[in-house]
């Protein structure tokens, strides 16, 4: 199973889900609302934190599940973890 499931496929799948939500889900949620409401911007603003939490959890779980890959490419997970942790902390401090 690990041979077919690679960490970068998990990141790609999460990114496709996020982009699907941004480009399909938000416009569909805006159908039927008047032009003065700001439903798309509100949904976008509220979705930033769960998207970042998703990337943070993926970086943690892929380093645990794919330990042999983590030993070789540890800096990639460290970069994703540190960027998402920094952004989440900056959201929570404000």
Textual characterization of the structure:
With 94 residues, the chain is an all-alpha fold. The chain is built from four helices and no strands. α1 runs antiparallel to α2 (39-65). The longest helix is centred in the middle third of the chain and has 27 residues, at 39-65.
Brief characterization of the structure:
The chain has helices at 7-29, 39-65, 67-72, 74-93.
What's the layout of helices and strands?
Layout: H1 7-29, H2 39-65, H3 67-72, H4 74-93
Key traits:
mainly alpha, 4 helices, single chain, elongated, 81% helix, 94 residues
Count of strand segments: 0
Note the quaternary state here: single chain
The biggest sheet amounts to: none
Please count the helical segments.
4
Can you give the mean pLDDT?
85
The span between the termini is 42 Å
Q: What is the helix content?
A: over 70%
What is the radius of gyration computed over CA atoms, rounded to a whole number of angstroms?
Answer: 16 Å
């Amino acid at each position: 199973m690990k041979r077919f499931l690679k960490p970068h496929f998990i990141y790609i799948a999460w990114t496709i889900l996020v982009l699907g939500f941004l480009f399909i889900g938000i416009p569909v949620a805006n159908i039927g609302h008047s032009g003065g409401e700001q439903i798309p911007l509100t949904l976008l603003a509220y979705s930033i934190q769960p998207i970042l939490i998703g990337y943070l959890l993926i970086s943690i779980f892929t380093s645990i599940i794919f330990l042999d890959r983590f030993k070789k490419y540890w800096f990639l997970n460290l970069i994703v973890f540190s960027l998402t942790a920094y952004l989440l902390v900056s959201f929570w401090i404000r």
